[in-house]
Design goal:
The complex is a heterodimer of chains A (616) and B (353). Chain A is 66% helix and 1% strand. Chain A has helices at residues 6-11, 24-30, 34-63, 73-107, 116-140, 163-191, 204-236, 249-283, 290-303, 319-331, 333-347, 356-378, 381-387, 391-421, 427-453, 470-500, 538-544, 567-583, 593-612; strands at residues 15-17, 559-561. Chain A has a two-stranded parallel ribbon with strand order 1-2. The longest helix of chain A is centred in the N-terminal third of the chain and has 35 residues, at 73-107. Chain B has 353 residues and is α+β, with helices and mostly antiparallel strands. Among the domains of chain B are: 132-247, Immunoglobulin-like; 256-350, Cupredoxins -  blue copper proteins (Immunoglobulin-like), CATH 2.60.40. Chain B is 39% helix and 17% strand. Chain B has a five-stranded mixed sheet. A three-stranded mixed sheet of chain B has the order 4-10-9. In chain B, strands 6-7 form a two-stranded antiparallel sheet. In chain B, a hairpin with an 8-residue loop joins strand 6 (178-180) and strand 7. The chains are: A mainly alpha (616), B alpha+beta (353). At the A-B interface, helix 4, helix 8, helix 9, helix 10 and helix 11 of A face helix 1, helix 2, helix 3 and strand 9 of B.
């Protein structure tokens, strides 16, 4: 085997920066390195995963028995709202952004993303948004309580208080962050691929990331518009969502779900990509139907923009619109089925080994299938009219988002953390994590199908003892404790592995793709030389297919790396000041809002000016 | 890692599986009074039930195929110890790809066509030449106002209809979005402010059917219940008799306690929001989104505070003394009634059969 890594020792490649990177904390504040930003995103995602899980634990305790008075009324609604908002926007999305940041440039053989400072801007804007949403607990002593869907007019100032202001303000910042990241990564994947990496040679995970970046770039504008209209209603007294002045609450639902449904695919496609990367490695075969898996992902992305109305079958859009959305939604089943069958095809005739990453990837398949099949039911309006807003739907989307998206991300953590830290995670702890989580997950969410069938609506803080929902609710609450325990085992495993883990080496799994040909962790410049890609499994073919060795250049190339910069953080902070100004525009909290808006706007202009005139 | 940990890891699946199965068995034994659309009591929910059963069979078949393939693969295609040869390097098979694209497409088509049929069936307007029970339903935080325009009845939360007769609801809301849902009779439909949506069903069974609001509508969303009472066509308990009874004015107080209660009702502020026909009626202009339910025959209801408490003098007293303690955020004012006043009002309201 030709030793790609030996090249570094022989040639000592050096990279050039306009200004050297800082050290310590300052490095993390000013970094534009996609790997460090990826770690920041991933760490933040894990932190908020704990918080969102704690919120779920609290409201499941309230629901364990009928007629309890632990978290009632808007306290309960706040926990539910923040559980969903946190899990979707602050946990799963940043974890995906973490994988996308860290691995997309490595997978396509690039040195960084196309716009490194924009990348840092996305991160800091996300950071500001995540703090803003949660700050309502600090300033108002309450969480926003209108559900993560925030249906107007419940969110208008007539029916809800200050916490909703923090909600729209934070979400607006998150939306800006995601849109910018979407554009950045589309450009990166389309333009920075290594020589020879045609689009069909791009690894499936990077492909799915490409699809979701398009989804982010096109689906976040509608919700941003919706949030700005809401901000105007609440701040300046406009009436976009107030019926008594001629506004229309359905406007919000359309804008929200036009974002909300593509968002579902933003959450699940990366995990499908991770599974598609892991299965081939531990079956030691190529991904079965590689192109079909990619095309079905792209197809899901396109169809995802035409199905939002299936969230509104009960809203009274009329039978014609219902019929159209029912039909488009049913179509989603086809590419999804193609993916599932191709994963099974990959397992067939293979020689499987079962490290934890593989276990999570395999259990993704049946769990996601269950979620997908119950989703088929909701595509049928006559049936959805009964299941909409019940625990059956809660069971459905948790099978998709926990059994699917989160299990896929866990698989990704076990598979990729050795590349990030250079240390292996402990396999015994990993397997305990897997089994306890899988059982806990099913114990929690399977009974919810039954609860929905027995007539329990979602988002209710209490239920009468004679409604017949007692046993399932108690079982479900028990399951949450198992999931909590499993997640704590994972965090313990992760933290201890950083110190005590076995050394991973560059390619611990005998894997297929470019990220495994560089050191773990990779150097700042990722690769000592630009790899030339000859097949869709460049590293595998380098190792196993004679004649497909990745050519090693004669001498070191000149490498230019972007310099650290404070400017992205300045712009984010200034944008945050504008948002806080709008939030306090009516003088609440004793802060005069409009001067803040002016300060923020001037700050944005000045820091953008400094940004563009800064040499990189 | 220690052996104990490994053993724990090995036994783990069975350790948690047995309690799970035991729990599910217990869940199956529990009575489910709201056992929903799988046990339909009206034409609309029969359609939903048919689709549920069809999809359940279809989904089970698909899930069985996927699980069976997965289990076989997991058993058959493991790496044997010491076997370091590579498996066959197959990049896929176009014939298989085409097959598992076309077969799901046909299945999806096969189920979508009847779905659209069911959807249009549910949206069909009822024949207006037949007898129709026509009710305007207004969702309010956190109760339901029911207006029988034709019959001139205004009531709340407990809807009375007739078996075998078409029911046509017109749903709207006075504040935020609510959703009307009584699973055994029909699917849910949003009650949206500024809009008016129809919901049709024809009950086929006599009895009481419970449901509740299904769209998050604020602090007491959980306590916004519904009961539909389906009356027989004739006999003393017939729908027509119910109409006749509720169109009468409220019963006059007969005991001193009830008389005292009526005084409290008139003097302590209850009248500002509540109508009792024959005692005090709110002028049409005085009714707003925050005015409360019509109490003319409140004594004959099964529950108070929108299915939150059983209707009894003790519960009414608890409710009027401190509504917010029963329903968080309730819009009914806490009038600071004394225990005696609350007891009197409860006696008076209970007498309004």
């Amino acid at each position: 085997m030709a030793s790609i890594l030996d090249f570094a020792a022989a040639q000592k490649p050096i990279y050039h920066q306009e200004r050297p990177s800082k050290t310590g904390l300052l490095d993390w504040l000013t970094t534009v390195d996609h790997k460090k930003i990826g770690i920041l995103y991933g760490g933040a995602g894990l932190f908020w995963l704990m918080v969102g899980g704690l919120e779920a634990l609290l409201f499941r305790i309230q629901l364990a028995k009928p007629d309890q008075h632990i978290f009632i009324g808007d306290t309960y609604n706040g926990l539910v709202t923040m559980h969903a908002t946190t899990m979707v926007f602050l946990a799963v999305m940043p974890m995906i952004a973490g994988f996308s940041n860290y691995f997309v440039p490595l997978m396509i053989g690039a040195r960084d993303v196309a716009f490194p400072r924009m990348n840092a801007f996305s991160w800091w804007t996300f950071f500001a948004g995540s703090l803003t949403i949660n700050a309502s607990l600090l300033f108002c002593g309450a969480f926003p309580a209108a559900g993560w869907t925030g249906y107007a007019p419940l969110t208008t100032s007539e029916f809800s208080g200050m916490p909703i202001d923090f909600w729209w303000a934070g979400l607006t910042l998150l939306a800006v962050s995601s849109m910018v990241a979407g554009v950045n990564f589309v450009v990166t994947i389309l333009n920075l691929r290594a020589p020879g990496m045609t689009l069909m040679r791009v690894p499936v995970l990077a492909w799915m990331m490409l699809v979701i970046q398009f989804l982010l770039a096109f689906s976040f504008p509608p919700i941003t518009v919706g949030l700005i209209l809401l901000a105007f209603d609440r701040t300046f007294g406009t009436v976009f969502y107030s019926t008594n002045m001629g506004g229309d609450p359905h406007l919000w639902q359309h804008l929200f779900w036009l974002f909300g449904h593509p968002e579902v695919y933003v959450l699940i496609l990366p995990s499908m990509g991770i599974v598609s990367e892991i299965l081939p490695v531990f079956t030691r075969r190529p991904l079965f139907g590689h192109h079909a898996v990619i095309f079905s992902g792209v197809f899901i992305g396109f169809v995802g923009f035409g199905v939002w109305g299936h969230h509104m079958f009960t809203a009274g859009m009329g039978p014609i619109a219902d019929a159209a959305f029912a039909s488009t939604t049913a179509i989603v089943a086809i590419p999804t089925g193609v993916k599932i069958f191709n994963w099974l095809g990959t397992l067939w005739n293979s020689k499987m080994t079962f490290p934890t990453a593989m276990l999570f990837a395999i259990s993704f398949i049946p769990m996601f299938t269950i979620g997908g099949l119950s989703g088929m039911m909701h595509a049928s309006p006559p049936l959805d009219l009964q299941q909409h807003d019940t625990y059956f739907v809660v069971a459905h989307f948790h099978y998709v988002l926990v059994g699917g998206a989160l299990q896929g991300l866990f698989a990704g953590f076990y598979f990729y953390i050795p590349k990030i830290s250079g240390k292996m995670l402990d396999e015994t702890l990993g397997k305990i994590h897997f089994w306890v989580f899988l059982v806990g997950f099913n114990v929690t969410f399977f009974p919810m199908h039954l609860l929905g069938n027995h007539g329990m609506p979602r988002r209710i803080y209490t239920y009468p003892a004679d409604a017949g929902w007692n046993t399932e609710n108690l079982i479900a609450t028990g399951g949450v404790f198992l999931m909590t325990a499993a997640t704590l085992v994972f965090v313990y495993n992760l933290l201890t592995s950083l110190k005590n883990g076995k050394d991973a080496g560059s390619d611990p799994w005998d894997a297929n793709t470019l990220e495994w040909m560089t050191t773990s962790p990779p150097p700042v410049h990722n690769f000592d030389f630009t790899p030339i890609v000859l097949s869709e499994r460049p590293l595998w073919d380098h190792k196993y297919t004679p004649g497909f060795e990745i050519p090693v250049p004669e001498k070191a190339e000149e490498i230019h790396m972007p310099s650290p910069s404070w400017k992205p953080m300045w712009v984010s902070a200034s944008a945050g000041v504008i948002i806080v100004g709008l939030l306090t525009f009516n003088g609440v909290l004793g802060i005069p809002g409009w001067p803040l808006c002016i300060v923020g706007a001037v700050g944005v202009i000045l820091s953008v000016y400094a940004w563009v005139s800064e040499p990189v | 890692m220690s052996n104990a940990l490994r053993l724990f890891q090995k036994r783990l699946p069975s350790l948690v599986l047995f309690p799970l199965l035991a729990g599910l068995a217990a869940a199956c034994n529990e009575a489910h009074p709201r056992d929903a659309y799988q046990n339909p009591a009206a034409d609309a929910s029969e359609i939903s039930a048919w689709f549920y059963n069809t999809y359940l069979v279809l989904d089970s078949v698909v899930l069985f195929i996927v699980l069976a393939a997965l289990v076989v693969a997991l058993i058959k295609f493991r790496k044997k110890p010491g076997d370091d040869t590579l498996p066959e390097q197959s990049f896929g098979d176009p014939r298989l790809e085409i097959a598992w694209t076309i077969v799901p497409t046909l299945v999806v088509l096969g189920i979508t066509v009847p779905t659209l049929g069911g959807l249009f069936e549910l949206a069909k307007r009822p024949d207006v030449n037949q007898k129709i029970v026509d009710i305007d339903v207004t969702g309010k935080q956190w109760w339901w106002e029911l207006d029988y325009k034709k019959e001139g009845i205004n009531t709340a939360n407990e809807m009375h209809v007739e078996v075998g007769t078409q029911v046509m609801l017109h749903l709207t809301s006075a504040d935020v979005i609510h959703a009307w849902w009584v699973p055994r009779l029909s699917g849910k439909r949003d009650a949206t402010p500024g809009r008016n949506y129809p919901l049709n069903f024809r009950p086929k069974e006599v009895g009481s059917f419970d449901g509740q609001c299904a769209e998050l509508c604020g602090a007491s969303h959980a306590l916004m219940g519904i009961r539909i009472i389906v009356h027989p066509k004739d006999g003393p308990d017939s729908y027509d008799n119910w109409v006749k009874r509720v169109k009468e004015a409220a019963a006059k107080p007969t005991t001193p306690e009830q008389e005292a209660g009526q005084k409290v009702f008139m003097n302590k502020g209850c009248v500002a929001c509540h109508t009792i026909v024959g005692v005090s009626e709110l002028a049409a202009g005085a009714r707003s989104r925050t005015s409360g339910p019509n109490l003319t025959h409140v004594g004959s209801r099964d529950y108070i505070a929108a299915h939150t408490l059983k209707n009894s003098p003790e519960n009414i007293a608890t409710w009027v003394k401190n509504p917010q303690a029963v329903k968080p955020g309730a819009l009914m004012s806490n009038l600071g009634l004394t225990d005696q006043e609350a007891k009197d009002v409860a006696a008076f309201l209970t007498s309004l059969k």
